[in-house]
Structure to design on (190 residues):
């Protein structure tokens, strides 16, 4: 593993445990065993380091999403993607918040940055929506916008849950998310 990769991994470890605000060049340097100035040889500033963490995490998420239910019925694969998302969001809440809700200069913006595979993780959702439309399961619509409709409810529920606004244990919360996605699918069905 290169020094740059070690630095990014240390930054991610701090972020996962404590949130993005806890990531400082000094803390990362201490974790890696280098001086804070040595980090600047690899990353010009904290923002560039955090962007490297975000990019690597999105690539990792995209590679792993859909592995729970890689084949089979269309709806089963949709719910597999939902639970892959919930595993990530609930398993790494600080990382989820950093990627999905924290303001970042390099964050992707809908719709332009999401067209044509600009978001590897979101592209999985767009692809399954397109597949559902092509198979006549979902009515014809703008796939990118239908994918946003399908995902935004779960993202909003996760925000409420992580903020302590939903008083359910995790299994009951996952069931709530499933029921809401089912309601949205009902509205998108052909």
């Amino acid at each position: 593993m290169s020094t740059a990769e070690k630095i990014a991994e240390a930054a991610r470890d701090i972020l996962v445990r404590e949130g993005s605000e806890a990531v400082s060049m000094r803390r990362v340097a201490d974790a890696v065993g280098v001086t804070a100035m040595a980090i600047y040889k690899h990353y010009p500033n904290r923002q560039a380091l955090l962007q490297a963490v975000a990019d690597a995490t999105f690539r990792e998420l995209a590679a792993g999403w859909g592995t729970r239910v890689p084949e089979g019925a269309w709806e089963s694969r949709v719910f597999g993607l939902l639970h892959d998302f919930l595993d990530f969001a609930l398993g790494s809440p600080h990382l989820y918040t950093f990627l999905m809700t924290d303001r970042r200069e390099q964050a992707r913006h809908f719709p332009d940055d999401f067209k044509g595979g600009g978001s590897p993780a979101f592209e999985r959702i767009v692809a399954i929506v397109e597949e559902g439309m092509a198979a006549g399961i979902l009515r014809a619509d703008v796939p990118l916008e239908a994918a946003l409709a399908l995902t935004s409810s779960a993202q909003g529920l996760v925000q409420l849950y992580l903020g302590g606004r939903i008083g359910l244990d995790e299994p009951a919360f996952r069931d709530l998310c499933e029921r809401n996605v089912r309601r949205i699918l009902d509205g998108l069905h052909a």
The first helix runs from residue 3 to 18. The CA atoms of residues 100 and 155 lie 9 Å apart. The mean pLDDT is 92.
